[in-house]
Amino acid sequence: TRRKGGSCSETLGSHIKVLQLFKTLHRTRQQVFKNDTRALEAARIKINEEFKSNKSETSHKKIEELIKIGSDVELLLRTSVVQGIHTDHNTLKLVPRKELLIENVPYCDAPTQKK
After folding, report:
1. Any idea of the CA torsion for 99, 14, 58, 1, to the nearest 10 degrees?
2. Coiled-coil segments, which residues (predicted)?
3. pLDDT in tens, 34-70
4. I need a labelling partner for 102 at 20 to 30 A (CA). Which of 1, 11, 38, 83 fits?
């Protein structure tokens, strides 16, 4: 049957993209928040809530916008989130994932003066 807002192939294509995005977000969540039970659970709930709240969306254009937002969120999580561990009340130890580390970037400890 044909749904309002697009052809069957558009609807099927969107359905596949949505499912792939859902799985990708959960995989990224598991990598980014590894060993952090609270963050893992909070991210799981948020992802599931967002997808559930838009489950009945039929507009192809709106679905594509939501897919774009979800993809942007996944990229942001994957490339920008770094875990920190409290070592004492004043210290936080950062634990970057391998994929976040960039090699061959020169580091300058001394600040430079703007001219």
Report:
1. -160
2. none
3. 999 999 999 999 999 999 999 999 999 999 999 999 9
4. 38
